[in-house]
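Q: I have 324 residues here and want to know how they pack in 3D. Can you give me a structure?
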Amino acid sequence: MAVTPITALLGKVTSGKPARASKTRGRLIPRKVKFDWSDTPVDWIPGHPFASHFINEINLLLPAGEFWFCRLYNQALPMVTDDKLRDDVQMFIRQEAMHARAHGGAVADYLNKRGIETESNTRQEDWLFENLLGDKLAGRELKSDWAKKQWLVFRLGIIAAVEHMTCVLGQYALDNKNWDAVGADPVLLDLLRWHGAEEVEHRCVAFDLYRHLGGTYPSRYYLSLIAMPVIFGLWAHGAAHLMKQDPRFAAKRPSVFRPWVWLEWQRQSKTGMLPSLPALLVRQLPFFSPWYDPAKEGSTEEALAYLEGSPAAAAAMMADRSAA
């Protein structure tokens, strides 16, 4: 029996095309959505003011972070050598910019117009992303290209961890029919589900880019340990800021540092109006695995099905077709 030389076997292994850097199915589609906030009440979930404020905080938290994503991805784009991943990143940037504008519009045209002060909270978010996580490290300009790339990849790892969280929350928004059952405001529901569906749709991009530019498992592990508590803390902090302005919660003195906010979050999750914090923490665990694969998180089919029927997304697609 003829024996195949080891060099021939190695040739078979190495002669094929290199593994594709992108795991995103198809091409991402930016959707230029618009929302009319004229009829949306502050208690957009009827009878659930705590949950309404808690979800409304997302509008304050996201714009600064998502514009920061866009700035970093524009810096990373020239380093991407895979054509499919480069296109993913470009479309990701356009989707994230639209997310930031949509939530920023909700802050200005929905919350502010109903007398809710948001600037003191959003100013903190701006400082976090422009200063603490800006291009300067600890206030110092980085000189070498190597140092600049390492600081960029470090921050891309934070984005990858956050994008896993937003995928989990996006799938929750798509699946949670309890909001519909109590008559939640359809415009804010559409904002949440359109955004959530696009988070599920582009869930692989951040992780693919991080690995493509040299991100490693050990750094991903400790970065997620930093990012996840910070995000949950900022969410509770911002929700407390909104509740401080609501006389119904005056006696509770809402604060991220007081147990009441965290205990009430868990109690409200039992009504089906909010995700459970322990359940969310459990859903973060796959990201810590060396074999983590974002393609296995969430459902692309469900996301695209919602985007086909989303009032805002459908109107955006019709406008694009009319303009073409």
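Q: Anything worth noting?
A: The first helix runs from residue 6 to 14. Confidence is low (pLDDT under 50) at residues 1-16.
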